[in-house]
Specification:
The structure holds two protein chains of two kinds. Chain A is α/β, with parallel strands linked by helices. Helix content of chain A is about 40%, strand content about 15%. Chain A has 17 helices and 15 strands. In chain A, strands 1, 2, 3, 4, 5, 6, 7, 8 and 9 form a nine-stranded mixed beta sheet that branches. Chain A has a six-stranded mixed beta sheet with strand order 11-12-10-13-14-15, with helices on both faces. The radius of gyration of chain A is 36 Å and the shape is elongated. The N terminus of chain A is likely disordered. Chain B is α/β, with parallel strands linked by helices. Chain B folds into three domains: about 110 residues, no CATH class; about 200 residues, Rossmann fold (3-Layer(aba) Sandwich); about 130 residues, 3-Layer(aba) Sandwich (Rossmann fold), CATH 3.40.50.920. Helices cover about 35% and strands about 20% of the residues of chain B. Chain B has 15 helices and 18 strands. In chain B, the strands form four sheets. In chain B, strands 2, 3, 4, 5, 6, 7, 8 and 16 form an eight-stranded mixed beta sheet that branches. Chain B has a five-stranded mixed beta sheet with strand order 13-15-14-17-18, with helices on both faces. A two-stranded antiparallel ribbon of chain B has the order 1-9. In chain B, helix 2 packs across helix 3, helix 12 crosses helix 15 and helix 13 crosses helix 14. The N terminus of chain B is likely disordered. Classes of the chains: A alpha/beta, B alpha/beta. Strand 2 of chain A pairs parallel with strand 12 of chain B, so a sheet runs across the interface.
């Protein structure tokens, strides 16, 4: 202990913010010193504030857990947000994080998920947890992650000078509700319960011993546990409200005590009360007339971590299967001849596999023919209403411009796509349509070459209408012949579900034959 | 024994006695030496035949693949060692989250969808403080929400990566369509003074490579790093060649583990130059190792304790800024073409740099001596390079998909020595190559400058 004292004193001297003589500081005398950052004391809390009690009960609970449950306190992290209560993280000698306003819970969520060994305690105020961090609070409760939330509720925003908060009772006064609060407050345990928390309790700081026992329970509880601590704000809330005996200067230094007396009067211990009925009642002037206290819910609930472990097992199996498929991927020699930039437009409606077809072309070009290809698809409003569009650029040198400038061929499988994409087609370009789905218009472009094929009907004959896009791909591959047949077939086999590989390859070959026939005739 | 109370002048600020100083540094230095000796895996991004390696047993994707840009970013992150992703769905960054949700559990990592982007960024920081490499990905509206805790990440010196797949703004803007309008927000979006690192990829391959680099920089400099890509690159599918893990340089943060240093002597925010090693940052402690450290978003001293005064603030901010400024030559990467004889230089980044290559080649064919400078690292900005070039060239042309954000930086660094022409498009589509070509011609005096929507304010 003597050595500890010396090193702590040394640390004190390294600090900036205090100007005490190190000799002033004696550490190791109080039983809680090991869990306090002595060099940071005195704390910033006001005389009569409830936070000191809240912190000591917390430390008491931790020490009990260390002694009786073999807890390794090195594994306990405390996360706070902003505000008076947020300063707890700075006074407790544990791994402690003083984060941004309201964000203690998501920060703690990250810590806990990335290292489930850690015990996480979020220690913050009502404004932090239920005001700015309200959304994080209900979601953390919903996830039921093993985090203990200790929320010190002093009914107002203390650090900023006593403004109204989400827990200020209706009718009570605050700096910003000088005519009485016209809003209604949260009942925090009820909010936690609605979110899905499996442990919730409330105590005032007057009930310090019970509070400490409850904090032990809460930290031992697997899953999300919530403890609300009602504490006097002696400087702000008590100044404006009758609990603190008002502004009587004689009682100025006694406000905290007056509030504690009030708690004694209005506190009602009722374990097991449904959180809905666990109210903080007020009279018409906002004076608190009843505080229901106790452990309201303490029930087991499925753990989060178990589901994560199950998911990991399934995921690893899936990777093993994917890995095998990748290893079995054949190698093709690739194409070495120079080709000019070639642009392909694909269009149809959703569900036809237009986007897949475009991707298959790009993959065949890059992976198996070893050329360059850039595949893009249409997103958003232009792709809504059932329209689907995809574009592929193929080249033997790097592609600078990823969009189509002048497509030299188009695969069109709907009337809408026909109307939309044909005007951009290059002069002399090749248009391939599914005859069953696209009707050539009266003013059809004379400067392009059009070939039709009843792709959907052909696919139907094979017993799989969804292979219509594959028929079109075969047709295109034969006519435009910028990508080798082997590359196209392999890319296709890579891209469709295993049980449909055969039917798709057949469909491709049918299209390819038709295309070859067309080529022979022209 | 009498106490040694000599105070080093430069250390007066810290109120440190020299004996403490030596005492508390010795273990840290030893530790750094230990870390420095451990072999680092080296990058050789070129491999003989990409098809030779097809997959790996550790769940890492390798070999040549036809990959969506967003997926490539996810694979890069996993290769870099990222094992935690917290995010919120947003077009056009959603595919990164989707890919991570499938891939992370395969490599022993974890994906979680948070309630919003505020929570996502915080969860990423929390995870990083357990020593796990973590990241998130978003687009404009989510980027705005992440600004709050990007600042916390910078202040707590927390390594992590944030990918912004930019779309057109402001506000909800153009969810599915390209933009480069968050470039200045990347630099100044969170309140206060700081330096940031931001990289701008032009292809899925580069999204893969630069995501790895982003993690390496984040780990090395203990800071959040941004990858500022865009909807075009994120939603584009191209060949991505992934080398085997041994060929990729992966940097892991310098970290103290249980027993490395006497906890009482450990300082979590030591001054960079004093920390030894390569002078970047002090080693990081992580939760659960017995250091019982404290960190705060408040201005703090080297122990992480709040310190509310001007000199503490100066110490604090200067460290945050200098650790990046002092290493800018290491951080800044540029692609240069035809700069030797250039009298006009096209400066661009991301997709706009890529689409500017054709106009540059075209202009050179027309006899215009135009050079090309692509900012692979956008922040910190290559001030010196732009300043030096400005002295010997006639004009810069800056194409970007916004009203002229990086153009302002180019103007600032040119300081009137060279004219600056912007080429703008306001989100929704990539730049027309013809517009860039015209801007080069105008800058070269080949055609009359006129009132043209695509030209910038310095034309007016």
């Amino acid at each position: 202990m003597a050595e500890d004292q010396i090193s702590n004193n040394d640390m004190l001297e390294l600090s900036w913010h205090e100007s005490y003589d190190p000799g002033d500081w004696v550490t190791g005398l109080h039983p809680m010193d090991t869990l306090l950052r002595g060099e940071r004391l005195p704390h910033i809390w006001c005389q009569g504030c409830g936070l000191g009690t809240a912190l000591t009960t917390f430390i008491g609970a931790l020490q009990w857990l260390e002694k009786n449950q073999d807890w390794n306190l090195d594994k306990v992290s405390v996360v706070s947000g902003i505000g008076c209560t947020g300063r707890v993280a700075g006074y407790i000698r544990l791994d402690s994080f003083h984060t941004t306003h309201g964000r203690a819970l998501p920060f703690a969520t990250g810590l806990k998920l990335a290292n489930p060994e850690l015990k996480l305690v979020v220690f913050s105020g009502d404004g932090d947890i239920a005001g700015i961090g309200g959304n994080h609070f209900i979601h953390a409760a919903r996830r039921n992650l093993d985090i203990t939330v200790i929320c010190v509720n002093n009914f107002n925003y203390g650090m900023t000078g006593g403004q109204v908060g989400p827990t200020t009772p209706h009718g009570a006064r605050a700096v910003t509700t000088q005519y009485g609060n016209f809003e209604f407050p949260f009942n925090l345990p009820y909010l936690a319960a609605a979110g899905g928390a499996s442990f919730m309790a409330r105590w005032t700081v007057l009930h310090a011993r019970r509070l400490e026992w409850t904090l032990r329970e809460a930290m031992l509880h697997p899953g999300f546990s919530f403890v609300e601590i009602i504490a006097p704000c002696s400087t702000s809330y008590a100044r404006w409200n009758p609990e603190g005996q008002g502004l009587d200067p004689q009682k100025l230094r006694r406000r905290g005590l007056e509030v504690m007396k009030h708690y004694q009067k209005v506190g009602k211990i009722a374990h097991g009360t449904h959180p809905k009925d666990a109210n903080i009642r007020v009279d018409e002037k906002g004076l608190i007339t009843e505080i229901v206290e106790g452990i309201f819910i303490d029930e087991p609930k499925p753990e989060f971590q178990a589901s994560i472990n199950r998911q990991a097992q399934v995921a690893k199996k899936r990777w093993a299967a994917a890995n095998k498929a990748l290893e079995e991927r054949p190698q093709l020699p690739g194409q070495t001849d120079q080709i000019p930039r070639t642009e392909v437009q694909l269009g149809g409606f959703g569900g036809q596999g237009i986007v897949s077809a475009g991707r298959i072309i790009g993959q065949a070009a890059t992976i198996y023919d070893k050329r360059e290809a850039c595949f893009t698809q249409s997103y958003g409003p232009e792709a809504r209403g059932g329209a689907a569009g995809a574009q592929v650029v193929i080249d033997s040198s790097p592609i600078h411009h990823p969009h189509l400038i002048e497509p030299s061929s188009a695969i069109i499988m709907s009337q809408e796509a026909y109307a939309r994409y044909i005007p951009q087609l290059a002069v002399g370009g090749v248009l391939l349509i599914d005859e069953g789905l696209v009707t050539i218009s009266g003013d059809h472009r004379k400067d392009i070459i059009t070939y039709g094929i009843p792709a959907t009907r052909l696919a139907e004959e094979l017993g799989n209408t969804r292979a219509a896009n594959t028929v079109m791909l075969g047709f295109w591959a034969a006519i435009v012949s910028v990508i080798s047949k082997a590359a196209m077939r392999q890319s296709l086999a890579d891209s469709v579900p295993a049980k449909t590989i055969d039917v798709n390859l057949k469909a491709f070959d049918i299209g390819y034959e038709k295309g070859s026939a067309v080529r022979r005739h022209t | 024994m009498p106490k040694v109370t000599i105070r080093l002048k430069s250390l007066n600020l810290l109120n440190v006695r020299i004996v403490d100083y030596a005492l508390c540094y010795a273990p840290t230095l030893l530790f750094i030496l230990k870390v420095a000796k451990s072999p680092l895996r080296k990058t050789k991004f070129r491999i003989q035949n990409p098809d030779e390696i097809m997959s790996s047993d550790q769940g890492l994707l390798i070999g040549a693949h036809f990959l969506l840009g967003d997926y490539a970013a996810a694979e890069g992150a996993i290769m870099a060692g990222c094992r935690f992703f917290a995010g919120y769905p947003i077009t056009p960054a959603t595919e990164i989250a989707e890919r991570m949700s499938t891939r992370l559990p395969q490599v022993g990592g974890l994906y979680i969808q948070m309630e919003d982007e505020l929570a996502s960024m915080n969860a990423v920081l929390g995870a990083s403080w357990t020593g796990v490499k973590s990241m998130t990905a978003t687009s404009g509206p989510g980027f705005s929400l992440m600004m709050e805790n990007l600042g916390l990440g910078i202040m707590l010196e927390t390594p992590c990566v944030l990918i912004n797949v930019q779309r057109g703004g402001p506000s909800t803007g153009l969810p599915t369509l390209v933009g480069q309008q968050d470039m200045m927000q990347a630099r100044w979006g969170s309140h206060g003074d700081y330096e940031i690192i931001a990289l701008a990829p032009t292809s899925p391959q580069e999204l893969f490579d630069l995501t790895i680099r982003a993690f390496n920089l984040a780990e090395k400099f203990r800071t959040p790093v941004l990858v500022m890509t865009d909807a075009e690159v994120g939603h584009m599918t191209e060949r991505v060649v992934i080398p085997s893990p041994e060929q990729i340089e992966i940097i892991d943060r310098s970290m103290v583990r249980k027993g490395d240093v006497e906890p009482d002597h450990f300082r979590i925010f030591r001054e960079s130059s004093a920390a030894g090693g390569d002078g970047a940052v002090s080693p990081m402690a992580i939760a659960g190792e017995g250091y019982r450290f404290h960190v705060t978003g408040l201005t703090h001293d080297e122990r992480g304790y709040p310190a509310m005064n001007a000199e503490a603030s100066e110490w604090n901010i200067k460290r945050l800024v200098n650790k990046i400024r002092a290493h800018r030559n290491e951080i800044i990467q540029l692609e240069e073409r035809y700069l030797d004889d250039a009298e006009i230089v096209v400066v661009s980044y991301g997709i706009s740099a890529r689409t500017s290559l054709w106009p540059v080649e075209q202009a050179r064919n027309e006899g215009i001596r135009v050079g090309y400078l692509r900012l692979i690292t956008v922040w910190p900005f290559p001030e010196e390079q732009i300043r030096k070039l400005a002295k010997r060239i006639r004009a810069y042309v800056v194409p970007e998909i916004n009203m002229g954000q990086i153009m302002r930086e180019v103007e600032r660094c040119s300081a009137g020595q060279a004219r600056v022409f912007g080429v703008h498009r306001l989100g929704g589509d990539i730049l027309e190559p013809q517009n860039v070509l015209n801007a080069i011609r105008k800058a070269a005096g080949r055609i009359e400058t006129s009132q043209d929507d695509s030209m910038n304010r310095s034309m007016e």
